[in-house]
Amino acid sequence: MTGTITAGVDGTAPALAAVDWAADEAERRGARLRLVHAWTWRPVDVTHGVDRRVEEDWVRRTLAEAEARVRASHPGLDVTAEVLDGDPVPSLVAETGRSGTLVLGSRGHGTLTGYLLGSVSLHVLRQAEGPVVMVRAGDRPEALPAPAEVVAGVQEPGAGSDAVLDFAFSAAAARGVPLRAVHVWNLPASVGWSPASLYAADQSSALEEVSKGVLTDILKPWRDAYPQVEVVEHCEFGSASEILLSLGGSAHLLAVGRRGRGEGVRRLGSVTHAVLHHATAPVAVVPHD
Fold first, then answer.
1. Where does the UniProt annotation place the signal sequence (predicted)?
2. ∠ CA(113), CA(114), CA(117), 5° rounding?
């Protein structure tokens, strides 16, 4: 993480929760905090009774109130506030290339997936060049039961796991809490139809041992780099989204990956979608190649 954390401000309760979380994180890491609101004037129907000056005054007042909130709760923090001239999605995506982390508010969780996160957040998450943390109102560390931990979803060896673990180990070290590294495994797809399916099922314990070995190997360089972080290796058979959600309820932070950093197709996988819409903890989405 670089020396700047950026939080998006829009005057809503989730955005204020994001500001609070970002301020806590900046103080914890000795980083600068940047509060931003992306806005561009578009003339509206006169029947709405809103002109440019009124709207711009609201934007600047909202930012000023968020800045005052941070200065009151974190008096020693280096905090600035800025109106970004442009549409929200490209402006916030650009911020992910400048800051160590972008923090946004999430409207919550429930069964109406696809509507609760917000279209701006979804577009930013799909295009972000760096980690984006989604925070719901009420997601504050002091509300967590002890002991709390950072939970990270670990895939196969490679850039994806490295990016997520880099973020997760750093977050755990800054908080002085354990890191739970979660690797979910399943039987090969052929088990459902192959004549040898019963034999493969009988060998599932062997597959579990292989998966545990993979996780141990992935974590070794990170254990060496962060010897102060207690690591819990969690290898389990089942649904990745269900397992991560079950573990995330008592977490400081839940970190997952997103394929497609840089050029090419950028998308949120089904596990990341599920975690974003249903997790009760703040969720960090870390892009990787």
1. none
2. 90
